[in-house]
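Changelog-adjacent note: as of this version, every example in the card shows the full chain rather than a window. The one below runs 171 residues end to end.
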Amino acid sequence: MKALWLILAGLLLGGCATMRYGPPQATADLKKASGETVGRTRLWEDADGVRILVRVQGLPPGQHGIHLHAVGKCDPPDFASAGGHFNPAGKQHGLKNPAGSHAGDLPNLEVAADGKGRLNYVTKLATLASGPTSLLGPDGAAVVIHANPDDEVTDPSGNSGGRIACGIIRR
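Full-length structure tokens:
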């Protein structure tokens, strides 16, 4: 009987883990202006908010600003088609801004000497469901990686420089 309870508890806990880290509800393939794929973003929504997992390879080492942008377009060479940062509440830029941040502001992405990097972040300022804060709304949204670090306070973009990679968020 004890073994049966242990099996049931394992199945229940495994089911919770699967719900939390199961298949992503949205993804974005990150590409350079040349069309070369340099990574992928996976997004899930749960009770804590939208979980954003970014993995990259082949980027210059160092810190890079990374943001959710307001338009689901990634036209090279400069990815300006992605518009500004996703900002449905009309806030100022920067996670350290005392007046609040854009919904699309994320911490810097750290890329190691081998060109690989990873970011894992949760935001409550956006959703994958319908509504004004949806990343899957009529204009869509994009993930953009910048050339320089984001200083996390300067409006409108944190002095993070040019856009070096972009991916359209899709269900």
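Structural remarks: The domain at 24-168 is CATH 2.60.40.200 (Immunoglobulin-like).
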